[in-house]
């Protein structure tokens, strides 16, 4: 049996440049420049292999001996210690590349495209809530269509929109993993869709108040509270809830309210500031709300920040009403179609919808502010109790 532990800590420290055996194939190589390396020499399948065990500055004599014992045992099992170490490293790397880790990295990479750098978490939440608790710890390279199917099956037919978003996010994560050089199945989500089948869930539109009933509801918002005033401005401008709730005094210049791009629906970098013409009634509502403003926000909450969308929704729910705040955009659009002769392009741009083909939008250099101003004055007149008679518009 070969002699082991020939070296001592003192000899290791004082040794001149050269090669020094500790026995059992463990060697210390000292270089003239002062550096030193531990090397294990073994014979595997009749072939000699040299395996580095680390620098002397990082690995002590005792640690080198422990490592040598470990890898000699691997040799006794008939395995190549160098290949076995590489295999262990690969498995460790795979463990680090769990679906959760890669999903978080993909989210970070996309934040610049998302509103507010994705701080609201809406992009990530479908994964965080419905996917990662089930398969987040699985290495992304092992994810297949069956894993995805099992994760999303419980909501595929009951929460179709959320399931669709989760599937879309998963597809992005898988492509991100492929870009990282990982061996993933980028078609796994499409295969999962085939396994899940067509969703039986029918999308439900947000309930809207019939346009003929809007004046009576508007009249009932008469107590001058933040919630009543916010709802009034939302109705008068046909704007979405978010820009109304986060409306700042410095966004209003005369009779124009400029909604910053960050508060508009759409991807960051793909939307622009949007000008809203303010009717005389809308300006009156703003003047009434100014004394209630705080920190520059026109519609502050009781404690801090701004009122929530739920605050306005609950007011309508308590009435009780099926309609919700976002539905007033539909009320306005239907009024345009049924009670006016408004050109479709004007009506759609008023709602900040994308109107016209890509080529048409590229050549269009106007937002039809003045045409929209006429329309919004007519809408305000109707909302305040007008007749809703047909409005003859000059086509743009």
UniProtKB/TrEMBL annotation:
**Locate the Tyr recombinase domain: which residues?**
204-376
Q: Which GO terms describe its molecular function?
A: DNA binding
Q: Which SUPFAM superfamilies match?
A: DNA breaking-rejoining enzymes
Any GO BP annotation: DNA recombination
Which ranges does the record mark as transmembrane?
Answer: none
Kindly give the InterPro entries that the UniProt entry links to this protein. DNA_brk_join_enz (IPR011010), Integrase-like_cat_sf (IPR013762), Integrase_catalytic (IPR002104), Integrase_DNA-bd_sf (IPR038488), Integrase_DNA_bind_dom (IPR025166), Integrase_recombinase_N (IPR010998), Phage_int_M (IPR053876), Phage_Integrase (IPR050808)
State the UniProt keywords alphabetically.
DNA integration, DNA recombination, DNA-binding
Specify the domain of life of the species encoding this protein: Bacteria
Q: Indicate the family of this protein.
A: Belongs to the 'phage' integrase family.
Instruction: Tell me what this protein is called.
Output: Integrase
Which source organism does the UniProt entry give? Albidovulum denitrificans
